[in-house]
Design a protein that fits this description.
By secondary structure, this protein is of the alpha/beta class. It has 12 helices and 7 strands. The strands form 2 sheets. The protein has a 5-stranded parallel β-sheet. α4 packs parallel to α10.
Length: 338
Amino acid sequence: MRHRGFIKFALKVLLALAPLLVPVIIYIILDPFSVLRKYDRYYTDPFIVYNRDYISTEIFLTNYRKEHYDSFIFGNSRTLAFQCKDWLPYINAKGVYHFDASGESLYGIYKKIIFIDRQGTGISNCLLVLDEETIAKIDNHSEHLGIKHPKISNESVFDFQMEFLHAFLTPRFFAGYLDYKIHNKVRPKFSRMFMSSKMQYDPVTNDMFMVGLEEEIQKNGRNYYETRKDIFYQRDQKEKKYTAQCIKVKQKEYLEAIKKIFDKHNTNYQIIISPLYDQLCFNRSDLNYLENLFGNKHVFDFSGVNEFTNSVYNFYEVSHYRPDVGRSILKTVYQENK
């Protein structure tokens, strides 16, 4: 009788937990964010927004011995304007790797450079793409799309995984994901949770290409920008405005550690301050600090009002500039350093 009573109790518990257990089982089976298991190829679902930091680290760990990566592009998603194939002609490299992350922080760049150094991998060349937002961030992200790979942060694997499970179990995401899987398409009411345009990825260099937006511009550029007039706001170019000072005590600690590793590897490095649509000039005090630490011949400031920021045609939206801009910047940077 006791045995039967226990079985009944256990069944009741299982029934009570079913609403939670079913989503967890679905999550484990489908691994929607590609963080539970290793894969030969990532980014297989064109609609899912992945954690770029995690996947960039996984691809590096899988390939670095055979691809002999010794040259790296660091920064946030604005580094997508700088493609490895465009950078390669300017440097002497065995293997080039795009080690960016969405919403990247100075903390993340610092941790990645230390991580690479500990792998025993040389850092022959480095392209460090910065802006105020990147430099200001000095801690690990907490949300699932920005949290650092545990091997980069040296923080809890359990906590890392729980961020993704929690994101998946959020009612709106879970409902949207199931709807997407059932209908095999993203319906408008859930569109904000998924990728809005087509992307392509290089499985070796980790370059990411905004092919959907680029194709749309190439096909009808005027219409592309006309329909986005509300995004491309008018800018006041009469008064020069600056970003807030962001290089403080912790930032100096990270930047000086990065410089020591560059010196250790005799790295050929270039630091680029991104040209942004807001046309704010990079803070003069911060710029002076970077030039004094890394050498002014290694620091290139493309912020403010200039040929790159004046035209809306150089941008996909107000946050990301296009590869043509990246190619022009590379040409300017490396011609000046001849």
